[in-house]
Amino acid sequence: MAALDAAPPRADAAPRARRPRLRLPTPARLRLPTPARPLSRPTLARPPADAGAPSPADAAAPDPADAAADAAAPPRRTPLPPPPADALVPPPVEDASLSEAWALVSSGAEREALSWLSRHPRAGTPADRLRVELFARLGRHDMGRAAKVVYRMLDAGDGKLDARSIGRLLSALPRERFWRTLAHLMADKRLFPQLRGRLFAMTRSDSWPTRWRAVDVIEKARDADATLARSTALVVDLQRAEVCYQRRDAVVRLGKVGHPSALAALEAERKQPGGLCMGGAVDEAIALIKKKKAGGRRR
After folding, report:
1. Given 2.60.120, 1.10.150, 1.10.287, 1.25.10, which CATH number is that of 224-299?
2. 271-to-257, 260, 261, 264, 268 alpha-carbon distances in Å
3. CA distance 259 to 137
4. Quick count: other Cβ atoms within 10 Å of Cβ 180?
5. 5 — phi, psi (to 5°)?
6. Percentage above 90 pLDDT, the chain
7. What is the pLDDT of residue 240?
8. HSE-up of 204 (CA within 13 Å, CB side)?
9. Where in the chain is the domain with CATH 1.25.10?
10. What stretches of 139-280 show up as alpha helix (H) in DSSP?
């Protein structure tokens, strides 16, 4: 109501003056720098030419004595490293029909040699041995094809595989991505007796994939000493553990396995100072192993 009751503006009232706009100076950091005049290059006086000094043309010409010394000096290029020990070298006696494939292998073209073998099928042990070596060397993920080749070699050789192919298969086991196919192949009744000793040696390896994949193959083959292989791998885990809870986990699993070969490692672990997270896990594992050992004797 107060706004409605207010008096209207007078007609003869003077207009309000407009406030002038302020123009602020541009800051110095926003101003464009004025181009500076380039400084002239000072002219230096040339020293007088020495009468005994050679001219530029003579200085540019090579000295025959220096050229001869450079030619006699050994090359500065770094020599190439020796070929790896794992390189594929053809055996002294080989099938002559595989000469082209071995030439590709010698030049470092392993994949081309494998594709050449697929285009030119060859029956017999030499070609199959070369296929197995190429599969293991390249670390191919399709180990099913390598398994078929090995089965064919076992059928052709009365269940015996040559030592070279066995070494290739064992070297491919730790680094193969799809290694379960290779593990099933190694657990075959004809092939496992040839690998048994080397697989048990692999259970003591410092590499985690090497020892545990070897344990998997031994357990797939249902070997009588499978518990020994698992206990050996767990002892290595216990010795290489860096954190207390990792050692405790290895101790608990050793107690569940219950193999007497782990008693020495557990006794040494019990003497270790510290390890608050361990609690009584070591004593419980030792008691379990001794109980299983006594039960086995009663039987």
Report:
1. 1.25.10
2. 22, 18, 18, 11, 5
3. 37
4. 13
5. -80, -10
6. 25
7. 92
8. 5
9. 224-299
10. 143-156, 163-172, 179-186, 192-202, 208-220, 226-240, 244-257, 263-270
